Amino acid sequence: MGASPMPGATAEPNPLSPPIPSGTLIYDGDCGFCAATARWAERRLSDDYRVVPSQQADLDALDLTQENVARSAWWIDPNGSRFDEHRCIAAALRAMSGPWPTVGRLLTLGPISPLARWTYRLVANNRYRIRWPGTRPTCNR
Question: What's this model's pTM, rounded to 2 decimal places?
Answer without folding.
Answer: 0.79
